[in-house]
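Thought: the user wants the 3D structure for the chain below. I'll pass the sequence to the structure tool as-is, report back what it returns, then summarize two notable features.
Action: structure_tool
Action Input:
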Amino acid sequence: NELRRLLLRSNLLSKAQVLEGFAYSTPQRNRVFGGPGHNATVNYLYDQTTSLGGYYNVEFQPFVELYTAGNATVKVNGADQGAQLFTYSPSGTFSEPLVAVANLGCNAVRFPCPLCLCDRCA
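Observation:
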């Protein structure tokens, strides 16, 4: 009960807003690992914990995970199709003729070009 009396909702909310601020201060508006919002969060937690007068032994742990951010654009005959990028997908470009493929399945005989659209690829 003593701990519960020390944890004020207003204090918890103010700290949550600090973390939210790290996210919103970045162009991506997030704290995804490896990004500027994440790094600001880690530095904040480090500073807060080390300010406790040596009560905790605090050190940075090496961080080797990779995260990439990117943009995706798909245009057909100049019209934007509203594509979204898959998380962790590689970057790149592709520029080839795009054609509709007949029937419900794809097979190599029906591929008139390197990229085809079909209802289902079997």
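Final Answer: Structure generated. Helices lie at 2-6, 9-24, 36-50. The CA atoms of residues 10 and 50 lie 23 Å apart.
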